[in-house]
Automatic annotation (TrEMBL):
Organism: Pseudooceanicola nanhaiensis
CDD domains for the chain: SDR_c
First and last residue of the signal peptide: none
Transmembrane segments: none
Family annotation (SUPFAM superfamilies): NAD(P)-binding Rossmann-fold domains
Name of the protein in its database record: Short-chain dehydrogenase
Similarity comment: Belongs to the short-chain dehydrogenases/reductases (SDR) family.
Amino acid sequence: MDRLENSLFDMTGLRALVTGSSRGIGRATAERFAQHGAQVVVSGRKIGPAEETAAAINATFGRPAAQAVAANIADRDSLAALIDESVRIMGGIDVLVCNAAIHPYVGPAMETPDSVMRKMMDANVMGNHWLCQMVLPGMADRGFGRIVMVSSIAGHMGSGTFYSYSISKAADMEMARCLAAEYGARNIRVNVIAPGTVKTSMAAAVMNDEALMRREMRRNTTGRLGEPDGSAGVAVMLAAPAGAYLNGQVIDVDDGFIMSY
């Protein structure tokens, strides 16, 4: 067995920014990146939970692998400050994981308020668009970059209840494909992870709805919900040498849900 530093999953020397990484999939991703050798900026809306996550990562791996920076994913100026501070801390950004998102409303199209639609698009689409605009020039100058967007299988599916959320997640998938096509020749890879229902606060709308949970368990091949580490492992692959020939792809991490949908 090769040592980690000789493996396809070695991230030593890579500088990663993971948004929404105080908890859930984002936190698991930041932890696994650090485990595989990367330097990580942990970002969340509130600095306290982000600092706690960074401290836990550093304690676990016995090195200053992570630092915390607060940011509001729906505010362009806040994201610009996040990028500036991340570059100051790490010297650059090689890997961007666009994980932060919101899911504040469940309801059909005709009942979706304009305010909800705008809020969802600002956080789930515009935030990622701004982040990519900010990091891509530096990646292109260096001739290396990895962007991972955490979308959702909701972006594949028609839904009578997740109208605004599904639209925002489908937009992230197409954003990634367009950026992959535009920047692939510069050794920049842009891919998407589309989780199914994972045991995080984001999935509360499903986990608290008995009918939705029955549907979920019926279509999952093992009859269980996902864990954050399932998506984090795919993020490591996409950021590490193992993912070098993947570009513009959407990887469903859903226990076969879409297959049986």
